[in-house]
Amino acid sequence: MKYVLASASPRRQELLTQAGFSFDVIPSAVKEKITKDIPSDVVMELAYQKALDVYESRIKDNPAYQTEDCIVIGADTIVSYRGEILGKPADNEEAFDMLSMLADRTHQVYTGVTFAGHISGKQILHTFYEKTDVTFYPVTKEDLHTYVDSGDSLDKAGAYGIQGAFAIHVKGIEGDYNNVVGLPIARLYHELDSILPKEKIHYAF
User: Fold this and answer.
1) C-alpha–C-alpha distance, residues 124 and 33, integer Å
2) 76 noted as active-site residue
3) Pick from 158, 163, 41: which is nearest to 105 by CA?
4) Is the pTM of this model over 0.90?
């Protein structure tokens, strides 16, 4: 069994590696199109686009991936507060505004995951999402500016990384911590377990 991660995210790569997966990294170059407005639907739509893009353009007809079964893993993560979707901030000002809105409140983190591949000659397409509630302590403007000025906000949905310096402002989590990092690795494993022949999934370990 071969696995391909359709993402350049070092956090997703680290989570897969920690879980024992051996995989190639082929980031998707697809131009994302959002046609949904419900957060769970949005992340599943984007994950589907990424996984299918890599599978169709780089894997499906590539001889290097024809000798074994192969699954491409696409993922997308967003932050949502009261139904408003917060992606990656465009600049420090937008990052500050996002974090100011989330401070002293509970928001949701959604990650969508799609498997696209071929198993025993049959095409596999499977999509799911995971949701985690995250609550922040009140955060002073000074602390927000310090964090935003560090540059850590700009490549992260919702303008923060829970595994980094902003962790000191996280009051509580309800759900999967790894989902907030960027990949619900336990759910991913069990979803694979539900769709793959039992002898296949263990090839990753």
Assistant:
1) 22
2) yes
3) 158
4) yes
